[in-house]
Design goal:
This protein has 280 residues and is mostly beta strands. The chain has three helices and 18 strands. The protein has a five-stranded antiparallel sheet, with no helix packed on it. The chain has a five-stranded antiparallel sheet with strand order 8-7-6-9-10, with no helix packed on it. A five-stranded mixed beta barrel has the order 11-12-13-15-14.
Length: 280
Amino acid sequence: MKHIQLGRTNRLRVVKKVDFGVYLDGSLDGEILLPSRYVPDDCRVDDELDVFIYLDSEERLVATTEQPLAQVGDFAYLRVAWVNNFGAFLDWGLMKDLFVPFREQKMKMQKDNSYIVHLHVDEESYRIMASAKVERYLSKDMPPYQAGDEVEGLVWQKTDLGFKVIVDNRFGALLYENEVFCELHTGDRVSAYVKQVRPDGKIDLSLQRQGQAAVTDFSDVLLNHLRTNAGRTPLCDKTPADEIYAVFGVSKKVFKKAVGDLYKRRLIEISDSGLHLLGE
């Protein structure tokens, strides 16, 4: 016997059918209604369903087969649907909007603007709500990463140094601006690589793999690019870094090292007009 996870997807068993839906076994939390509009056509008693559990307008537990844009414990970039004298309400993909009280706002939220927030269950009211005070919910544990590890990140905010990123829904990290060769915006989801974890637990990221592994990988990409483009590309050492990134998604440094690698292997020749694949 256990409690359901409020604000999360739960797998629950159908215990009975009624005219207005079905009731699910919420174990210690009793039976939970899944309204008719969410009940699968072939649903039967004893079936197990994956449902999201939240509170209805009367603060009762209710289930839905719809999936919200974020769940309790997640960081997400959500739009303000409306505001009132108590706070803001975010569109998170369900009929009932997600509440952000004024005390959980860093600045007064504006209708139709979007913000990075963390979803949690308020200990006093037992309501699902969100907070824009993101730092409070980042893990204080030492990150378990090694240099070169690939991680998923949510771009949080722009700073003088670069972009703050929330890594794997847990840790704060930084992408340095001089290593970003594409447009990034708050709310973007990115794949990145750990450059280092500092002794204080802070994480430095890169959008590209580091070291020889990055060069080796991109050498193969560049070789394949030449083979599928009549053995030629106008890109060369003199091409601006942003143009190289726009085509290949790598830094000019990685591009130049890969060019050198292919040249040493006598696979290409280099000229003022670009790169030419030998033997093609």
